[in-house]
User: Which sequence fits this backbone?
């Protein structure tokens, strides 16, 4: 098995990172969205056009209708940070080939050199923003998993790295289709890493930056809100890493209440200042032209939240699109009614996760809440795109240190949901290549094919295999990624191939056992869930493994059917519908599983 062999080499994680960058580069040799398809081309032209706009127009005209920036030709419809990113990338592309960013005359520009530079900017963004942030997040997750009692060995960490960096949906969306999701996802990963390590203000800033790069990051907002509110209310008593003030040092409950309120106020100030810094350069120069501060802000809002586009576009594997075959939502209801309905369903879906984090905030609970919140928006949200499946994929793949099976199942089920879009883009070859490569590298290391994962405190095989070379036994996790304050992954120790928890709680005394029980049980059901359902090698682990394999075989059969039998003339959309319905049928049980799992994490 490839990953098992890599465990014996010193630079195993480094190899995975640079191998993933090579795969991204090779994917970039394919076509892209709108390739040679005038007059509007596609997302590639949209990103190039935004470079042209931000490089040649003053800040107050970025979101303003004009002859040089018409609303019918790829207007800038992302928040200001995307504009600043386009400006920086525009400098790079324009420095190499000025014609690629010249005003008006560059519309539809597709020279070989400009394509190389455009692809290079995506790889550079991936390497600078996403890679280090994802590594930091993985280290934080490994610490949290180890401190929850599960033994995390080097193989588990390497498997998680491979899942995160070789995840095919992210690669083909950014480096095939052409976008810069790696930036907002990288900023979100950085926010996760900071918050899981107790740096809630730094994490809040990073998440606000993610929101100001792509508005789709709003999918994560309820989870972050619930977790940070829970931490502020409980002063971190539910998280081993998030402790600001010990309750024993506070004189009375009234002072504790003041401390909690002050924390909430500080978080609010951090959020408002971050947004103000991001928006001020764009909004302030437009005040006179727009007729005031509020109209200037609303001009940007109308661009980034175009509710007039409708409930959904094209084929997306969510509730509205799949059910529209039977219920013609767009014909029966107006946009306003559909928007309200979708928001109600979305809130009802993510509300349990938010409540859980307000009541019992924890590092791993945050990740589950992020999966559930983003899934809720994807399944029930208004104006959802195919690419938005990247959002639940991010926390799910970070959780692969604890649960690789479900993360891989989700990644492989998500690829067919993108198939109708990717075929139109002309990137079918990378689609199949990336899917097969991911499956070939990851599946042999998962049950039932792979080695048995290390057990946890809640059951399973507690005996760890000393399967690493003797020369590596004394190495620390800091050789993989450096944890905070120079410690090995923030207290995670590496001995004989294992990552063990840095135990800080009193487990011997009666008080320690009682406190531990409070944090790990829910009406006495938590231990039963972990014993019979939660582990990778218990009943549910095997079931999910076989369901994932069956799902993969079904997807393969669906592709073969599409190439073998053309659809009838009266239903030319048949296979597009089948692909998104297949993915939706996988997404629903995965979402339900994560919803339940959060309450027992």
Assistant:
């Amino acid at each position: 098995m490839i990953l098992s062999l890599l465990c014996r080499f010193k630079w195993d994680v480094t190899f995975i990172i640079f191998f993933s960058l090579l795969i991204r580069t090779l994917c970039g040799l394919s076509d892209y969205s709108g390739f040679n398809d005038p007059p509007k081309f596609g997302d590639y032209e949209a990103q190039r056009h935004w470079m042209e706009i931000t490089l040649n127009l003053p800040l107050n005209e970025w979101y303003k209708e004009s002859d040089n920036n018409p609303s019918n030709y790829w207007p800038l419809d992302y928040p200001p940070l995307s504009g600043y990113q386009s400006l920086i990338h525009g400098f790079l592309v324009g420095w190499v080939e000025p014609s690629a960013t010249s005003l008006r005359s560059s519309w539809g520009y597709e020279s070989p050199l400009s394509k190389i530079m455009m692809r290079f900017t995506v790889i550079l963004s991936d390497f600078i923003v996403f890679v280090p942030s994802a590594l930091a997040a993985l280290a934080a997750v490994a610490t949290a998993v180890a401190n929850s009692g599960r033994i995390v060995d080097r193989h588990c960490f390497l498997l998680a790295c491979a899942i995160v960096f070789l995840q095919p949906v992210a690669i083909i969306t950014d480096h095939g289709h052409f976008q810069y999701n790696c930036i907002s996802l990288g900023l979100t990963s950085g926010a996760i890493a900071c918050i899981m390590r107790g740096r809630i203000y730094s994490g809040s800033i990073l998440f606000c930056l993610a929101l100001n790069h792509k508005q789709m990051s709003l999918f994560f907002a309820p989870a972050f809100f619930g977790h940070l509110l829970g931490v502020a209310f409980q002063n971190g008593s539910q998280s081993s890493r998030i402790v600001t003030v010990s309750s024993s040092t506070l004189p009375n409950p009234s002072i504790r209440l003041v401390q909690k309120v002050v924390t909430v106020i500080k978080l609010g100030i951090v959020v408002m200042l971050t947004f103000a810094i991001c928006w001020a350069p764009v909004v302030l120069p437009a005040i006179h032209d727009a007729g005031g501060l509020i109209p200037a802000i609303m001009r940007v809002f109308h661009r980034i939240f175009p509710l007039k586009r409708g409930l959904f576009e094209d084929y997306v594997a969510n509730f509205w699109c799949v059910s529209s075959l039977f219920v013609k939502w767009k014909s029966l209801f107006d946009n306003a009614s559909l928007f309200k309905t979708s928001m109600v369903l979305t809130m009802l879906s993510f509300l349990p996760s938010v409540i859980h984090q307000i009541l019992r905030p924890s590092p791993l609970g945050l990740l589950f809440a992020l999966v559930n919140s983003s899934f809720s928006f994807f399944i029930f949200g208004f104006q959802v795109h195919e690419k938005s499946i990247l959002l639940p994929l991010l926390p799910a793949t970070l959780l692969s240190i604890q649960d690789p099976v479900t993360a891989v199942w989700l990644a492989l089920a998500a690829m067919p949901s993108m198939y109708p879009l990717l075929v139109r883009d002309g990137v079918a070859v990378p689609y199949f290549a990336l899917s097969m490569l991911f499956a070939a590298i990851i599946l042999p290391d998962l049950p039932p094919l792979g080695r048995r994962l290390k057990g946890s405190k809640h059951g399973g095989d507690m005996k760890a295999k000393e399967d690493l070379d003797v020369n590596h036994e004394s190495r620390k996790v800091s050789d993989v990624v450096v944890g905070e304050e120079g410690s090995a992954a923030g207290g995670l120790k590496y001995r004989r191939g294992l990552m063990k928890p840095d135990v800080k709680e009193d487990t011997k005394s009666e008080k320690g056992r009682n406190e531990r029980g409070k944090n790990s049980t829910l009406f006495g059901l938590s231990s039963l869930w972990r014993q019979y359902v939660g582990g990778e090698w218990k009943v549910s682990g095997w079931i999910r493994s076989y369901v994932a394999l069956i799902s993969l075989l079904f997807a393969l059969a669906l592709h073969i059917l599409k190439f073998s039998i053309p659809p009838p003339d009266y239903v030319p959309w048949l296979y597009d519908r089948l692909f998104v319905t297949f993915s939706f049928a996988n997404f629903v049980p995965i979402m339900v599983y994560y919803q339940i799992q959060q309450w027992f994490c």
